[in-house]
Design brief:
The complex is a heterodimer of chains A (about 190) and B (about 400).
Chain A (H helix, E strand, L loop, with lengths): L3 H8 L7 E5 L5 H10 L2 E6 L2 H10 L3 E3 L14 E7 L8 H11 E9 L4 H8 L24 H10 L2 E10 L2 E3 L3 H4 L2 E8 L1
Chain B lengths: L9 E5 L3 E2 L5 E2 L2 E8 L9 E5 L26 E2 L4 E2 L4 E5 L34 H14 L5 E7 L1 H12 L4 E7 L7 H15 L17 H15 L2 H7 L19 H16 L2 H13 L10 H4 L6 E7 L7 H13 L4 E6 L13 H20 L17
Parallel strand pairs in B: 5-8, 5-9, 6-7, 9-10, 10-11, 11-12
Antiparallel strand pairs in B: 1-4, 2-3, 4-8
Helix pairs in contact in B: 1-2, 3-4, 3-7, 4-6
Classes of the chains: A alpha/beta (about 190), B alpha/beta (about 400).
Chain lengths: ~190, ~400
């Protein structure tokens, strides 16, 4: 979720004044934007030293933590909103993390690369794993250890008792609401515990 | 990196007794301290540095004519350093009960019955809270209402945390490095072994060894050796010494030094016993044992920090098994539960607990960023009483 436009699209989903937990907050850009322009407050979670430092430089609260270890630091429903942007696909324990997101936040927003975006389908149809702008890695070195699709997430959300409040795709900085599973490289879901 | 150059220790004497947690009082006491940098006109840029077990008010810089006398945190504090003395007024203070210039067991006991002898083991037991109270008196005396920050590592970090609870309105930022919310049974166990080493030394004389003209050096040496083991990680010790021998082959002796780690620990013990007071060691390890701010809240750390108002910076080191990262995370959890501003860095440094005194760039960069933001905030604040004669842009630095 490094694209500025994508970050702005996500920021619009966040109610003003929200208490926010941003899982995998990167360099803290979104959190800083939410604080500055939407009066939000909260914390970012990061594992990478360089990102933890970047957050410090920006002056946003950051807690260095491996998300694979869960969210034991946080009480149930202690945040209005938990963001998990471009992070889910890096985690071994994807489903547990999703449940933790729903436990800690009243509302969760996740985004991840949609593996079913049509160019990816063409790659696979041609017999090769996709290498694209959103998925720029080779199969053997990708940090995206969980490859899923927009449609797959709907199934998982149902299984884990999550009520989807809003869902859309993002393609080239624009919201895609028509056939997002086919036409969008990024999937976005806003949900709460059913 | 430039250093502060020569610095001067100062003292503050207080005739007003300091009430202690034990119910006793320090009747009359002196605090040794040093300051670096300049206090701004608003008196808003002061940072208090709290020391750990064996350090002092000599945080940074050197003493004139003693080129190897750098302060214990000279790599962190100085011009252009992470805690930049060109932007902050930094205060180092020696805690009462210590042995580097503030009133402690080696000071004369004011009780007339003592006939001018030193306190020795009659020095009252002192706690982290008592230290924080004494530091607040010094801050008062320097004319500072609210500190920009209080920073410390290990036991110093505990003092910084206690500032946020005891004087919540008197600091903006609390920086607690390699700290813990209290000691574990294992931590207390190590302290107790160290204390037993001291008090069972035949030259301890019930703590009044000064009256006998001796020092329980053997006990102090062993205490320091035990302590030192807990400051280093297994990996750091392995890397530095491994199984390296002093000589080419085994000497088949149980009494002589065989392995280099033995020589190192004995050297550390010898050095320490030359400058540190045995009663101070007992007092400070006890202050560590007693520290447990959640005790008054039934062990509920979140309830404990409900009164805190400042923001927090916590740092831990992955190989620190004395105060492991999990202990810092307990504090983070309590702060988050109170919706307090906190950042936490867990540095993958190999050195163990001692890492807080070293200059790992990841660690120092985080503190540099943290203090740069704080300085920026303070410098952007309008002066409460702008002087018409020297308005902004009037050529002042």
């Amino acid at each position: 979720m490094s694209d500025r436009k994508d970050i702005e699209l996500i920021a619009e989903l966040v109610p003003k004044g929200s208490r926010v937990l941003d899982l995998g907050c990167g360099d803290g850009e979104l959190l800083a934007l939410l604080e500055r322009e939407r009066g939000c407050s909260g914390y970012g979670i990061e594992i990478a030293d360089a990102n933890v430092l970047a957050c410090h430089r920006r002056g946003v609260n950051v807690i260095q933590l491996n998300l694979e270890e869960g969210l034991a630091l946080f009480d149930d429903r202690s945040f209005d909103l938990v963001l998990q942007l471009d992070t889910l696909q890096h985690l071994k324990n994807t489903e547990r993390m999703l449940r933790e997101t729903a436990r800690v936040g009243r509302v969760g927003i996740v985004s991840f690369p949609n593996f079913a975006h049509w160019p990816n389908r063409l790659h696979v149809a041609a017999g090769r794993m996709p290498v694209t702008r959103v998925l720029p890695y080779q199969w053997y070195d990708t940090p995206n250890i969980r490859v899923g699709t927009y449609a797959d997430f709907e199934v998982l959300a149902k299984k884990d008792g999550l009520r989807i409040l809003d869902a859309f795709g993002i393609q080239a900085g624009r919201v895609v609401r028509t056939l997002p599973n086919l036409l969008a490289s990024v999937a976005v879901f806003k949900f709460e515990r059913a | 990196m430039p250093s502060l150059g020569d610095v001067q220790p100062q003292t503050m004497h207080s005739a007003e007794p300091l009430a202690l947690a034990s119910g006793k009082a320090l009747r009359d006491y002196t605090l040794a301290y040093e300051t670096y940098g300049a206090l701004n006109a608003e008196r808003s840029n002061a940072v208090l540095v709290c020391h750990a077990l064996n350090a002092s008010h000599h945080v940074a810089g050197t003493y004139a004519g003693k080129p190897n006398s750098e302060g214990w945190w000279d790599n962190l504090v100085g011009p252009g350093k992470p805690l930049d003395t060109e932007r902050f007024f930094v205060i180092g203070v020696n805690n009462p009960g210590s042995c580097f210039g503030s009133t402690g067991p080696t000071s004369p006991n004011p009780d007339p019955a003592a006939n001018g002898r030193s306190y020795g083991s009659d020095f009252p037991v002192i706690t982290v809270e008592d230290w924080v109270d004494s530091q607040a008196r010094l801050v008062d005396a320097l004319g500072i209402g609210k500190l920009a920050a209080v920073i410390g590592g290990s036991l110093g970090g505990m003092q910084a945390l206690d500032w946020s609870l005891r004087y919540p309105e008197r600091l903006r930022l609390c920086v607690a490095i390699a700290a813990a919310p209290n000691l574990s049974a294992q931590n207390i166990a190590f302290n107790e072994v160290a204390r037993r080493a001291i008090v069972t030394d035949p030259e301890f004389h019930g703590g009044h060894y000064a009256d006998h003209g001796v020092i329980p050096r053997r006990g102090l040496r062993v205490a320091r050796m035990i302590g030192h083991i807990t400051y280093l990680s297994d990996d750091a010790m392995e890397a530095k010494f491994g199984r390296d021998l002093q000589k080419a082959a085994f000497g088949y002796s149980t009494l002589e030094i065989e392995f280099q780690i033995e020589a190192y620990l004995r050297h550390q013990g010898d050095k320490f016993s030359e400058y540190f007071d045995a009663n101070t060691y007992l007092l400070i390890t006890r202050a560590l044992d007693y520290f447990d701010p959640a005790r008054r809240h039934g062990g509920d750390l979140a309830a404990t920090f409900a009164k805190a108002r400042c923001r927090f910076e916590l740092v831990s080191f992955t190989t620190d098994w004395r105060f492991a990262p999990a202990r810092s995370r307990e504090i983070v959890k309590a702060l988050v539960a109170n919706q307090l501003d906190v950042s936490y860095a867990e540095i993958a440094a190999p050195h163990g607990h001692d890492a807080f005194l070293l200059d790992d760039p990841r660690y120092h960069d985080v503190l540099r960023a943290c203090f740069a933001n704080l300085a920026g905030e303070i410098e952007a604040e309008p002066s409460p009483q702008p002087s018409p004669a020297s308005g902004r842009g009037g050529g002042l630095p």
